[in-house]
Specification:
Helix content: 40-55%
Strand content: 15-25%
Order of helices and strands: EHHEHHEHHEEH
CATH class: Alpha Beta
CATH superfamily: 5'-nuclease
Largest sheet: 5 strands, parallel
Number of strands: 5
CATH topology: Rossmann fold
CATH architecture: 3-Layer(aba) Sandwich
Strand order of the largest sheet: 3-2-1-4-5
Structural class: alpha/beta
Radius of gyration: 15 Å
Distance between the termini: 6 Å
Number of domains: 1
Number of helices: 7
């Protein structure tokens, strides 16, 4: 069984813009998606979040990597921000008063598109109770696989 999980923006940033052990963990999540061991759900909001740094720095190569990756049909399900997502995001913010709107949109997208897990490096982010929050670390891939 293939697991459907939501990837937070910080997983992309760590995998493609940083180096070190945590970055290796983030890249292992993408390896799992490439091996078709998991389907990664992402929001269109990710486009705006990920392209800020490359545009600011004039890094056309990184912008192209993100654009290609986010446009790839294999392993990724890119979901739009529609009224249903916005209503659910408002619900998430009402339940968890400190949740910022972008985070609420990510959580809402995960909930509405039947994700089992929400993979993030943000240890402060509260996700909906029906989602398994998986912190990025050396056991992330095993934690995702265990949901199968």
């Amino acid at each position: 069984m293939t697991i459907k999980g939501y990837l937070d923006a910080n997983i992309f940033i760590l995998a493609f813009e940083r180096q070190g052990p945590v970055s290796d963990c983030a890249r292992s999540v993408f390896d799992l998606v490439n091996e078709r061991g998991a389907v990664a759900v992402i929001s269109e909001l990710l486009v705006a979040e990920l392209l800020v740094h490359p545009i600011r720095k004039g890094d056309d190569r990184l912008a192209a990597v993100y654009s290609e990756l986010l446009g790839s049909p294999t392993g990724f399900e890119t979901r739009p921000i529609d009224r249903q997502v916005l209503v659910e995001a408002a619900r998430q913010r009402a339940i968890r008063g400190k949740t910022k709107l972008p985070d609420a949109i990510h959580v809402a997208t995960a909930r509405l598109h039947a994700c089992r897990a929400f993979v993030t490096a943000d240890r402060k982010l509260e996700v909906a109770m029906d989602l398994e929050s998986i912190d990025l670390g050396p056991h992330t891939v095993e934690a995702i696989r265990a949901l199968a």
